[in-house]
Amino acid sequence: MTGERRWADKGEAIGHGVSWLARWSLRTALAVLGLWMVLWLVGKLWVVVMPVLIALLITTVLWPPARWLMSKGLNSALAATIVLLLGLGVLGGVIAAISSSIASGVPEIAQSAQKAITQLQDWVGGPPFNLRGSDLDRLIAQGVDQIKSSIGSIAGGLLTGAGAVTSGLVTGVVALLLAFFFVKDGMRFTPWLRGVIGERAGGHVTTVLERIWVTLGSFIRSQAVVSLIDAIFIGLGLVILGVPLAIPLAALTFLGGFVPIVGAFIAGALAVLVALVSNGLTTALIMLVIVIVVQQVEGNVLQPILQSRSLRLHAAVVLLVVTAGTSLYGIAGAFFSVPVAAAVAVVIRYLGEVIDSRSVMDTSQPSGDEPAETERSPE
């Protein structure tokens, strides 16, 4: 048959197989080495890469209203300025509303906390602890002495934390400035790119970038849905249990949902702490169970399913990618790993489409140098 290759003996066939395996092993090794070099370079330039990634995610939120304003006749700079200021205003308004609600509820929580401390003192004063006032004073004094002896390490930790907060603020400011420029000049990027790298390659690159842009928008929408569901169920739990500050805590849960691991943990811990101080141990334990159940369902079921549908990634892939990103880059890696993986999947799918289209063209138009099948004479 045409296209079949005949081997003189088994040694030649085995040699061909070994050569094929060696070639593909070398190619795989080079691909793995290239991937490792990219990850290493990203790690070294993380202080630059992170603001760019944050700015791109912010731009996916700001671009639709900015595009609408541009369609009404506003220039790109004015539209970008308006949507950025409005976004900051909305975020500041939410934070101000949360702070106002918390400030109004502080006296009630302080009164409940005083009662809780009195109940705690009565509880530890009875069996099995039998700790009287002098015993408690002694324990408190020991704790103070321990803190004094560790003041150096505590100060170092506070300085490290202050440095991290300062770095985070700088990153946020840079990300906002980049988001402004992305919204203002983003529409000029693909034409400029086509002019630089050529029409043929530029067509492929711009198509891939447009698909990645759609993917980023889907990621933000799915993350918002997940955070909203978390906030609704935890907020309902707070309301049903009669815990004060239910609305601000629900809002904090929604905002914390955009910060993987730490955001959900802090929001849940605050809900449990307020329940403990204001309503007692039983309510706090019930609230703890609610928070754990909601966060486990969100992290292991809801988020993978929603993101797998919106980003066209399997739920198992989402879980594995988040795990890998967390181990490599910590909290930021957990947040950015899913959109990065989705972008890589977009590139792979597009390459598959190009290969399939060219394969169809090649098979439909056979080349002239294809060997013709010859008629064999009967022996």
Would you tell me the overall average pLDDT? 76
Q: What's the total count of β strands?
A: 0
Give the C-alpha Rg: 30 Å
**Separate helix tally:** 11
Order of helices and strands: HHHHHHHHHHH
Computed structural class: mainly alpha
Describe the structure in your own words.
It is globular and about 95 Å long. Helix 7 runs antiparallel to helix 8 (246-256), helix 7 runs antiparallel to helix 11 (315-364) and helix 10 (281-311) runs parallel beside helix 11 (315-364). The chain contains eleven helices and no strands. The chain has 379 residues and is mainly α.
Indicate the topology.
Layout: H1 10-44, H2 46-71, H3 76-125, H4 133-149, H5 151-185, H6 189-197, H7 199-241, H8 246-256, H9 262-279, H10 281-311, H11 315-364
Helix pairs in contact: 2-3, 2-5, 2-7, 3-5, 3-8, 3-9, 6-7, 7-8, 7-10, 7-11, 8-9, 9-10, 10-11
List keywords for this structure.
mainly alpha
Give a concise summary:
The chain has 379 residues and is mainly alpha-helical. The chain has 11 helices and no strands. The model is unreliable at 367-379 (pLDDT under 50).
